[in-house]
Amino acid sequence: MKLMFSSIGNNIRNRMDDMVAAGTNVARAFDQEAVRALKSAVGQLFLLQERRDTTEPVRPRQTALSTFAPAGPPESLQDRLRDFFRRLLNDEMYDAVCFLTSTAPPDVNVREPDSEMRFDSFATKIAERVENIREVRWRDNIQAADWDADWPSATTSAS
Prior knowledge:
Shape: elongated
């Protein structure tokens, strides 16, 4: 058993922070009742290479918050990611997650380690969200030009 966090462990932790920030920003942008039904589909497709440092159990680094961590056997980074993605879905921060793992070339073998985070489910959930937004726009007669007029464009300059 290794001590967490290796370079890849730090990289994964940074990506997890990025995912929470992105989900929070989208939720905040659509927290008003008037636009909530038009909230963008939020999804994450994550591919993790199966390597010894991602599949073997690791011991968490001891910190002041370690006493609040749930007790249990050490988990691999892959297991921690799976649990993290489940929380993103359960907390409705993301509409869909596709979690894939892969062996290294030349014998690439892609796996879907969690049945709830398979690619087909991911694609279906995102497509359903897009269709829901289309239905709301059609029902409420919201034109793309109306929607775009409310948002500053990248070409708009501040005076």
